[in-house]
Structure formats: structure tokens, C-alpha cells
Amino acid sequence: MPAWLEEIVAEEKLLLPGNSACAGCGPAISIRHVLDGLVAAKPESKIVLVIPSSCWTIIAGVFPVNAFGVSVQLTPFASAAAEASGIKAALRLLGRDDTTVVVWGGDGSTADIGFSGVSAAAERNEDIVYVLNDNEAYMNTGNQKSGATPEGAWTTTTPAGAPRAGQKKDIARIMAAHGIPYVATLALGSVPMLRDFRAKVTRAAEVRGFRFLHILSGCPPGWRYPTSQSTEVARLAVESRYFPLFECDGGEWRITFQPKQPLPVRAFLETQGRFSHLSSDEIDSIQAHVDERWNLLAGLARGRV
Fold first, then answer.
1. pLDDT of res. 305
2. Distance between CA atoms of 305 and 300, rounded to whole angstroms?
3. Is residue 182, in this structure, part of any structural domain at all?
4. By the 8 A CB rule, do 126 and 81 touch?
5. pLDDT confidence of residue 62
6. Beta bridge partners of 212
7. HSE value, Cβ hemisphere, 13 Å, CA-based, for 108
8. What does DSSP assign to residue 99?
9. How many Cα atoms sit within 13 Å of 276 on the Cβ side?
10. Cα 51 to chain center, whole Å?
């Protein structure tokens, strides 16, 4: 085992055992590596975690219960970025500017209901780390479509007979357009992806200003796959280029994970019941859009867009 991986295995885990996350919860793996990675990068810094309405307000628990080894503030759907901004300002006045304020928001609160607050905080370049935990629907309330739901996907509001039309919001590029210091996409599906993930968390810890981490996080009941397959589904999402891993650091775009032999997007779609109704022609259409997005990203990385 490489030394960097041994260090990760030995870390004190800030998501505590016995929490109420579902079996196989993809975000549970991701939030552990975000929090532990921030502490590893800045051991002297404390963390305040701000969580808007989501599965994670339930998982975190109600005072005096706390599923985390850090301070947690629970907020309504729309106000997480504003509340995080206020917490950071108060800490600065108290002389505790070294405290890292982290928002852990779902796609509903980030891309939809709370987007105005997220955009405003980014425009002000607030010194916070905003994490989009993207499971591509409103999962805590029963799997309704969000702005991040992908084309063709089944949800309770886009049933198989009338699945999601159009493509999901390109939220990472939208945030990069604000001119913020750091934007990155992350996913956990293999050891190389873990190294990429932790490197981006470390970079986010080093930068000051608004940092945006977009994490693809599978949901077994919502996506309809076995609970043991969360990391495999994430791996296929990246290796099919359905979810490219990239960063925009100080305005410079870079693809951080290049699949050696890209898989067809069908390999990712067929792992999940939410896409089981799709025809071959519909899958071909999704493949075309995946290829278009990859080519656009490759152009950004070459400085040609």
C-alpha cells in the first residue's frame, strides 16, 4: 500500500460510526474524505459544517446528537450559503479566521432552491468551501426531479412514460463563470480517483475565497442499484466520461483524470434501474451529449473556448 493511502486509512474519521445514513450511501464516503482531507491539509484549523435541508440534516441528528466530529449548523433549503457567509464573518470578528466553514448542500438546495444565495456568495468571493453533494434528484423527499437530474432519468415526477427531458445543469461551469478561485469535480470509484479527490480537497484547503467542489454521489434507493455498488457506479460514471473529473484553478482549466479507454455511457446507465426504460436510440442520444460535453471541456483545457 502506498504511503499516502496508509495515511488516509490511519486518519481519525470525522463522520462517526452509528450514523443513520442508508446502506451503501455514496455521500457518506464522500463527506468522510472531504472533512478528513481538510483536516489533513490544515491540522490547526477547525471546521464548521453547514447543512441545508437534505438527507444529511437527518443523518447529522438533532442536538445534542451529532454524527460528526465537527460543529454542525442546520439551515433551511435556500439559506446555506448566506448562513455560511455570516458564520465566517462572525468567526473573523472573533479572531478565528483560521476556522474553515464548509457547506454540504444537495443538488436541490444548490442548483435550484438556494442557487441565488450560492451565486451571491460566489460573486462576493466569500471565504467558504461549498460542496455540492450531487445525487441528481431530491432524494430526501422521495426522489423528485431537480435541475441536476440527467436526461432520460426516472424520478417520481418524471416517470418512465415521461422521463427527464433535456440535460442537467452544468453547475460546475456555471460556478466557474463567476470567476471564483477554485472549482473542481470529484468522484470516488477507484484508488486513482481517491487520489484525485483528496488532491482537490487539499487544494481547496490552500486557496482563500469561494471554493466549489462538485461531487457525484450515488444513491442506491434513488438510482436503483445494489447497496454494494456505489463506488463501482461512480467509477463507471467517470470512465464513461458521463462525469468528467476536472478543475478550474485561478481560471485555468485542466482535465485531471483521463480514462485510458473510455467506456460507452451504456456501461454506466445499465447499472441503474432509473435508466432501465431507455431505448437504444435514447442511449445513443445521451452518448452524443456526453461526447459533446467532453469535447467542450477538452477545448476549455486547451484554452480554445
1. 53
2. 5
3. yes
4. yes
5. 85
6. 130, 183
7. 19
8. P
9. 8
10. 13
User: pLDDT above 90 covers what percent of the chain?
Assistant: 97
Phi, psi of 126 (to 5 degrees): -60, 145
Residue 257 to residue 161: CA distance in whole angstroms? 36
CATH of the domain at 110: 3.40.50.970
> What span, in angstroms and rounded, lies between the C-alpha atoms of 187 and 112?
21
* In-domain check, residue 246: yes
Q: Alpha-carbon distance 62 to 43, whole Å?
A: 27
Place of cell 474524505: 33
List helix spans (H) across 20-107. 26-41, 55-60, 80-93, 107
Adjacent-strand bridge partners of 104:
131
Range of the domain at 29: 12-301
Each residue's pLDDT tens digit, 219-269: 999 999 999 999 999 999 999 999 999 999 999 999 999 999 999 999 999
**Predicted structure pTM score:** 0.97
- Tell me the three cell numbers of residue 256: 485531471
Q: List % helix, strand, coil for the chain (3-state, nearest 5).
A: 45, 15, 40
